[in-house]
Amino acid sequence: MQSEAFSELFPLFNAANPETIDWLLSVADEHEYPPGRAVLMEDAWGNAVYFVMSGWVKVRRLAGDDAITLAILGQGDFFGEMAILDESPRSSDAIALSEVKLLSVSAQRFIQTLFKDAQLHHRMLQLMVRRLRQTNQRFQMRNRPPAIKLAQTLVSLAESYGEPMEKGTQIYNIDVKDLADVSDITADEGQKILSKLVSKGWVKIDEANRAMYLVNLKQLAHLAGHMG
């Protein structure tokens, strides 16, 4: 992949020097995973940063036999950067939801890249602050009605990874439990709300193509922003 195309795909590298990106790509490793495959095990956090070239990944927290989905990531996003600076043991992993293509850069080389390019270093800090704000937003919404929480999750996924189509904004047909976990609601609540959104015509699900279409994104955004 050319450096220009890489910087367009990943907002992290919008302000990076082309030479920095060329060097990064030269030391990166490519990976492909089928749906359901672990792309990062709990004991591997901190070894590398992973960039999602295509597909969908979920990060989940492990607690015995249970697993709670913490985040859903799509094309153009990355994960593993926080663990490079935090050497504490991890009890989470990352699983491919769909077919996934990743690039990985070792921790040492990624840190070298940050030192090489001050603009990239600054951009990384900006994105980390943005993620912190998103976490704070979710915390502030913990007492909101389940429908508002789920709408917020769907809108966020559409804004971050959605692809405009004739049917609506397309995202991956994410399992209800995963959507519910990320939204901090129960799976039963998630199923009831999603069914209602489908009956309203705001959401359409194409199971054959593993796609979900947010037909009425404006109404979903209005619901997500309703704090009353």
Molecular structure report:
The protein has 228 residues and is an alpha+beta fold. The chain has 2 domains: 3-139, Jelly Rolls; 144-225, Orthogonal Bundle (Arc Repressor Mutant, subunit A). It has 9 helices and 12 strands. It has helices at 3-9, 18-27, 81-85, 107-116, 118-140, 146-161, 176-183, 187-200, 217-225; strands at residues 29-33, 38-40, 48-54, 57-63, 66-73, 78-79, 92-96, 100-106, 163-165, 168-172, 203-206, 211-214. The chain has a 4-stranded antiparallel sheet. A 4-stranded antiparallel sheet has the order 2-7-4-5. A 4-stranded antiparallel sheet has the order 9-10-12-11. Strand 4 (57-63) and strand 5 form a beta hairpin. Helix 4 (107-116) crosses helix 5 (118-140), helix 6 packs across helix 9 (217-225) and helix 7 (176-183) crosses helix 8. The model has no long low-confidence stretch (mean pLDDT 90).
Notable characteristics:
single chain; 228 residues; alpha+beta; Jelly Rolls; Arc Repressor Mutant, subunit A; 2 domains; 12 strands; 45% helix
Give the gist of this structure:
The chain has 228 residues and is α+β, with helices and mostly antiparallel strands.
